[in-house]
Specification:
Layout (H helix, E strand, L loop, with lengths): L4 E7 L2 E6 L2 E7 L3 H16 L10 E3 L3 E5 L5 E2 L5 H16 L18 H14 L1 H8 L1 H17 L11 E3 L8 E3 L5 E3 L6 E3 L1 H12 L7 H7 L18 H7 L7 H29 L4
Antiparallel strand pairs: 1-2, 2-3, 3-5, 4-5, 6-8, 7-10, 8-9
Helix pairs in contact: 2-6, 3-5, 3-8, 4-5
Length: 289
């Protein structure tokens, strides 16, 4: 193992390190196959001269990934229209690599992306933590979320299967996985959850992240981002699943006690705003049946 100088600990398994005058991110994986997958993706994208990922990613001891530190980089903000547009364009360009690479090959270790299964599991986890969440959110709100989720999942039966060619999906479109470096270059990081699936599924996940920042106004977002026209209109019904709310409530148990109260208060406000907007969003998603 390379003997780095530690600058700071970012997460329990991620460190900002230095070797001589160069700085790096060192990340340790519990599953060596995930580390191998991330390295294989970076190598293939580098071979293709894909301009929006990190170069020189190396693997140490099977489960430790070393990559360059991006100095003076900032995360995207989904409150910014420019950042929304640029992040969606980055995803589109990533998906387009499927025209040159067969990402289904075993060497890339990409799991299949199944949106419905992913959300079924998320709903079950939420139900398992019902007692804990309802203490903060209240039984009525919890029951409303579960009902929306269950009805949205039933709606998958009326949606025609996607016909697009499957490709590489980033898998985690949270805003801080999109960076702009000091030279203005846009970069995608953290391919840990990368998968193989339809590009529309990732666009839907991106829309789930972005909708709170446009007041859940679906028409506004569709008009703002022409790339979203690639999504079949009936498939927009998948936005009815309250994915972001369920996901955020699962974090409550991981937040330290001193930060939990502030986190919960903010999350309650986020949930109440979302629920007050959901009936209109539900209607808007079904206008194109």
């Amino acid at each position: 193992m390379i003997n780095f100088d530690l600058k700071r600990k970012i997460k329990s398994n991620v460190w900002h390190c230095q070797l001589k005058k160069e700085e790096f991110v060192v990340k340790k994986y519990d599953n060596p196959l995930v580390a191998k997958k991330v390295k294989a993706i970076h190598e293939k994208l580098a071979d293709m001269q894909f301009p929006h990922t990190l170069s020189k990613v190396t693997l140490e001891d099977q489960n430790i990934l070393i990559q360059p530190w991006i100095k003076n980089a900032r995360s995207f903000s989904y409150q910014s229209r420019i950042d929304r547009t640029n992040s969606l364009e980055l995803l589109h360009q990533l998906h387009q690599t499927g025209k040159k690479v067969d990402w289904s090959k075993d060497e890339y270790l990409l799991p299949p992306y199944d949106l419905r299964l992913k959300w079924q599991e998320r709903l079950q986890k939420f139900i398992m933590h019902y007692a804990q969440v309802s203490v903060y959110l209240g039984a009525d709100n919890c029951n409303q979320l579960i009902l929306y989720a269950q009805e949205a999942l039933k709606g998958f039966n009326q949606i025609e299967p996607l016909q697009s060619t499957k490709t590489l999906l980033h898998g985690d479109v949270v805003h801080h996985n999109f960076l702009k470096d000091s030279k203005g270059k846009n970069i995608l990081i953290d391919f840990d959850l990368a998968a193989y699936g339809h590009p529309e599924e990732e666009f839907i996940m991106w829309m789930h992240r972005v909708l709170p920042h446009v007041n859940y106004n679906l028409s506004t977002l569709l008009n703002e981002q022409p790339l979203l026209k690639r999504i079949p209109l009936t498939y927009l019904q998948t936005l009815r699943f309250p994915n972001e709310i369920l996901r955020e409530w699962m974090y409550v148990k991981t937040v330290t006690n001193e930060k939990q109260q502030a986190f919960v208060e903010e999350l309650i406000r986020f949930t109440e705003v979302a629920l007050s907007s959901w009936s209109k969003l539900w209607y808007d998603c079904g206008r194109w049946k």
